[in-house]
Design goal:
three-stranded antiparallel sheet, about 240 residues, alpha+beta
């Protein structure tokens, strides 16, 4: 992008960003279920309960901290049509944040809000945003995990993206997660497997094709081409029944 600090120079500044892939609510709950002792119903109920209490506490206190995650705070703003006024009070600090002496304060003019514009009260305010600040533990752990997986690689069109790193590093564990998914879903598509495991689409396609040829994977393929889907093998279905 253009160097905004010196736009006349014609120079361009590099901007760095991470290419992201959103994990949906269902994918998150499936991942938690596959990597914990919680059942799908328990995982969903836990998420709903936390969300309910978070809404209730934010409405009552304005700030909630979740251990290991971060702090949520409520930001307010005047409702549409309401103007923020100036308080009839002398300034006690300079623009640099230094406290002014008594003599300096006496020399400053007092600035008051016109009567007609000063109409802000409690009912004139509304929630403008909900802010989130992650905990130091969360920040450090994400940074450590990302740096430990080879840091970043440069992509010409996508900025800097994390190096390939599946959510489930072991293939056998990925097959187990797929079987768990198929016990609560009729079938699995390549997109579903990629989202569940963190693999790229191409790698997920190749791995599912391999899984359908291995008897111990518990995964079978049906259909052809773009209509191909994956289901539990007869042996795996019998074990679960």
């Amino acid at each position: 992008m253009r160097d905004l600090r010196d736009p006349e120079s014609g120079r361009m500044r590099e901007v760095y960003k991470v290419k992201t892939r959103n994990v949906t609510g269902d994918s998150f709950m499936n991942y938690v279920t596959a990597h914990s002792s919680l059942t799908p119903g328990e995982t969903q109920q836990a998420c709903i309960t936390i969300a309910d209490f978070l809404r209730e506490l934010l409405a009552h206190t304005g700030s909630v901290t979740l251990p290991g995650i971060g702090t949520f705070t409520v930001g307010i703003r005047p409702k549409e049509g309401k103007e923020k006024g100036l308080i009839d009070k002398k300034v006690t600090m300079s623009a640099t944040g230094q406290k002014l002496s008594g003599a300096e304060q006496e020399d400053l003019p007092t600035e008051a809000t016109p009567e007609k514009d000063h109409d802000i009260n409690a009912r004139s305010l509304e929630v403008g945003r909900i802010n989130f600040r992650c905990s130091k533990e969360l920040f450090k752990d994400v940074s450590r995990r990302l740096s430990g997986e080879g840091s970043f690689r440069q992509s010409r069109y996508s900025g800097f993206v994390p190096l390939y790193s599946p959510l489930i590093p072991n293939r056998l564990n990925r097959f187990a997660a797929a079987r768990q998914y198929l016990r609560t879903h009729r079938f699995m598509r390549i997109d579903d497997y990629a989202e569940l495991t963190g693999l790229s689409y191409t790698t997920a396609q190749r791995e599912l094709k391999l899984a359908s040829t291995l008897t111990h994977s518990g995964i079978a393929a049906t259909g052809r081409g773009s209509h191909r889907i994956y289901v539990l093998s007869a042996a795996a279905a019998a074990e679960g029944s």
